[in-house]
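Hi P.,

Sorry for the delay on this. The queue was packed all week, but I finally got your sequence through. Input first:
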Amino acid sequence: MNQKKFTGTGVAIVTPFRNDGSIDFKSLGKLLEHIIKGGINYVVALGTTGESVTLTKDEKKAVVNFVTDTVAGRVPVVMGIGGNNTQELLDTINQQDFNCIDAILSVAPYYNKPSQQGLYLHFKAIASASPVPVIIYNVPGRTGSNISAETTVKLAGEFPNIIATKEASGNMGQIMQIINTKPKNFQVISGDDALALPIIAVGGAGVISVAANAYPKEISEMTGFALKNEMTKAKALHYKLLEITNSLFEEGNPAGIKALLDIMKISPNNLRLPLVPVSDRLYSKLDQLSKKIK
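Then the structure:
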């Protein structure tokens, strides 16, 4: 497995929508060119930021096909395939054409609140079915359950195609425990923009970023400096972006980043229910903060 593909900056891309709610492929193409030009290392489609839970199966297929066609091999593409019905996920994997897909990102099952054994068996089934590498995604704030360090390391040790975890627990103790006890080739990727630098500093491999939809160059440079242990340069970029990064999540994701992309005239500020655009107050705040970043 070539884990190096997923070192550095991945971008959890938004799915732009037109005013009528349909997918805005023109804006999606514009976004992809913007982030690739900015020097990002890989693209993650159909994640939480892409509002994947509100897309139909046909729409998901159309988005992935458009992304792989537009990216055209310039950077790796990761496809989000996650959910809380294990068998349905296995069926999706079995039906998916993985040509031009370099890995899948699979979130821990939400709502069901499985035990650690349930989480282990869920990801074992996915790893056994997937023809491409698997990145597990731990985000307890959204799923209601935490994949423990022990479960993560067990999965990493037993299944060679589980190559990384996207850690968004915010628990640095847990993250360091994984880094300290994981197999050598297994990667720990920050799932939290604000913690990307500290996670890399303790041995992480990079970030799957939301903010990089807007600031691919700055976040790619920050991640690159941190991975080379050029911490003075990395910290300067980290703190330059910290206030606007934190502001993106004040009223939820991807509402914040969609507002910022609208301000930057990259894609429109449309979301699908149950998500709604940010308040006028936060939109104005993001507008003001964006003017400070040169």
